[in-house]
Amino acid sequence: MLVRVLPYAKTLLSSVINEGDIAVDATAGNGHDTLFLANLVGETGFVYAFDIQQQAVDVTIQRLKENGLEHRARVILDGHEQLSKYVQEEVAGAIFNLGYLPGGNHDIITKGETTISAIEQLLSLLKIGGIIVLVIYHGHEGGKEERDAVIEFVKSLPQKYVHVLRYEFINQKNDPPFIIALEKMKKLPDLK
Ligand SMILES: C[S@@+](CC[C@H](N)C(=O)[O-])C[C@H]1O[C@@H](n2cnc3c(N)ncnc32)[C@H](O)[C@@H]1O
After folding, report:
1. Is 99 in the pocket of ligand 1 (CB under 6 A)?
2. What InterPro entries does UniProt report for this protein, alphabetically (predicted)?
């Protein structure tokens, strides 16, 4: 069976995040991925999760508490473009779910410019062999602009430093999400 997009995102994260590692959920939302990462990093690792909506931060903390894992994560009410203010350690893996908060305000969406800024910051913090997974939702208003900006940016990354994968079912209707994954191969020079 072909692995579906969302399980594949988890497979990629599980392949690089181990007990004791630092992981980032760049778009906490309802906290499902933050919880998933908190399980992967174990008692000795740590997760940084970001969201610009108080509602998302509250729901994510609540979900961690329900699972007894709130001590494994810091859920930050700030944009992921501020990432390097909060994270200085080497990061093993990170996930972005682009778009709007399911069940929330559909006008509050991730944007190309800030997403790209967060990816750049993460690429510099990432371990060699670490992975950033982007789940790209692009059916909503503004989604195609962000998708195109992110793809243009990741395509321009030199392959000597970063391997870039696109994983997508190409015959599905209604703009299904797809994955872009970045694997750091070598310490990057300043990309700017
Ligand atoms: C698709 S949802 C995330 C879903 C989430 N991973 C889950 O498991 O439920 C996207 C989230 O990104 C948040 N967001 C939008 N812009 C952001 C930014 N600049 N930094 C961090 N989060 C942002 C939105 O508030 C929204 O909650």
Report:
1. yes
2. MnmM_MeTrfase (IPR010719), SAM-dependent_MTases_sf (IPR029063)
Number of folded domains that form the chain? 1
Q: How far is the CA of 68 from the centre of ligand 1 (A)?
A: 23
pTM here?
A: 0.97
CATH at 170: 3.40.50.150
Q: Is 124 helix (H, G, I), strand (E, B) or coil?
A: helix
Any bridge partners for residue 93, and if so which?
Answer: 23, 131
- The edge-to-edge listing of strands for the beta sheet with 46-51 is 73-77, 46-51, 22-25, 91-97, 126-136, 178-184, 162-167
Q: Is residue 144 part of a domain?
A: yes
Regions of the chain short of the pLDDT cut 50:
none
Domain of residue 73, residue span: 5-184
- For residue 190, being part of any structural domain is answered with no
pLDDT the model gives residue 192: 54
Looking at residue 190, its pLDDT comes to 74
